[in-house]
Every structure is written in structure tokens, then in C-alpha cells.
């Protein structure tokens, strides 16, 4: 039997005091760490500026690494000690030629030049790794065109999964019909243009249905032409409190503007809602296609969006068909314990695999 390993996850974002608040780190590192800990391994979660392991790790995962002197020195020292180094990336942040498609640029949060330089640093860092994990198959395909040791063979698809801390929560009863509530939960400030893809349709539906409500949770600028009492907008909550929001009944929405950047994104919103037996009407990103039958109601056109929303609201049989046994179905695609075993088999240092 293989011995337990020491595995470290290093955040590479710019705020060492708040790296655990990053939703990407929560799902890409913390969630995997919880599963690995349950399987008997010694896991540490820390920031690149403050590595916190008690003994030399066997594997170190760099989350979204960027080229810098500190990064270069740490990875060089670890490599010299024989540590298996892994990079993890969950967005198309390594191709400067695609930076103009970034939501941060499109939503005017950062200048294009700043993003291009950041993407270049991501690219240069990723070229140093012989193992890179990605959140979607589309992202794996994009990364496969980039130079790096081992080429495409170094890339491992680790999809996002239901957060392990939720697994102790009882499954809610499946409702006979949908609550007259539409729910959109943007996690960051960069989703204004995404929401704008469906805002006219939502305005029309809300005006036509006085009993229908829209709940927004998170940072979002919008201008819906509807009665104020039909829209509730609450601020973003910490992940520890997010559970109480995502489990509320309703039809979840996950619109995305169609760009090369969003095509590589994960359908995590579908996974989160499905665990609580809630359907999600979503844009046709590639990762959502694998979740058709597990909570994803894919809508490619305005007519599709209208059709899915009205069918789920008005046809109890259609709603039950989508939501019955949904938790079990989504866990077949998004069980972090199963995914962690596959990850470990692929990342375990060669001398530990015998």
C-alpha cells in the first residue's frame, strides 16, 4: 500500500491575507484538499509568500502561478529537492492574444495592457511545469497549443465538483413544481455583460408575470424595467454563508457572453444548484453540455431561454423530469472524493507509484 503523502496548495494571487476568500482557490484547492485529507494525506493550504508546510511536501500545487522572482526561486528550490510540482489553472489566462476577451477588460475593470502582461506571466510560469491541471476540457485544448515539457500529455482534466463541506447536508425534498423565483448568483464583479445577455427577456417575463420574482446575490449593475418589488438584490456573501443562498428554491440562471474566454469556463453554477435539486438555465458553454441530464438546461438563443424558463415554471411534469434525483445525477459527474483519487493516481511522484 502506498504511504500517505504531504501535499501543499500554494495560492499565487496578490493578497496573502485573503487568499482563502478567492472562490477559485476554494474549489480548485480547498475542496480537493478536504478530499485528500479524508483519504489520509497531510495537506497544507498557504500562500506563495508564506509557505506553511511542517515537512518537505511530496507534491506542491501552484494555483494560477505567475512568473515572478519569488515564484521562480520557490519552484527551483522545490524541484531541486525532488518535489512533484503541479500547476492548476481554471480560466483562459495564459494567452495574451486572448486578453481582450477577458471579462475584466470587457467590463472595463482593468486596462488591456495590464491583462496582457499578466497573461504573459501566467504563460511563462506554466511553461515550467510538467504537470498542469485544468477545470474544463476546452481549457485543456487551449493549453495543449502552448509549449511546455511533455506537451499535451502533461495536462490533466480535473473538473470542478460539489464542495465537500456540503455533503453532510440533508437532501431537500424534490418539489412538485417550480417556485416562481428566478435566481442569479454572480460571484465576482465581472458579470454585467453576461447578465445583459438575458436582461431584456427577464424584463419581459417579469412584467408579464406579476407573481414572478428575480433574486440577485452578488455584485451586479443592471437596469431592469420592472416593478421594484419583483427584484431582490443582496450583496455577495462569504463562502461560509453561500450555502444558505444557493440552496434556496428557484430556477437558477447562468448566462455567459459568448467569447473564447467564457468557452473555457466551468459550469460550476449548474453543479452547485443541482446538488440542491434546482435546475439551471444556462448558456451553451462546452462544460455545460456534459451536465445535460444533471441540471443543465442549455439555452443557445433567446427563444431557448424563454422556452426553458416558461416550461419549468408552467409545466410541473417538465420540472419534475429535470429535478427528480438531481443530487445523485450531478454527483456522478462532480464527486470530489472520486475525482481526488484519480488526481492522486496521476500526480503521485513516480517513486511513490510502485
UniProtKB/TrEMBL annotation:
Domain of life: Bacteria
A molecular-function term among this protein's GO annotations: transferase activity
UniProt entry keywords in alphabetical sequence: Transferase
Protein name: Glycosyltransferase family 4 protein
Organism annotation: Ideonella dechloratans
Organism taxonomic ancestry: Bacteria, Pseudomonadati, Pseudomonadota, Betaproteobacteria, Burkholderiales
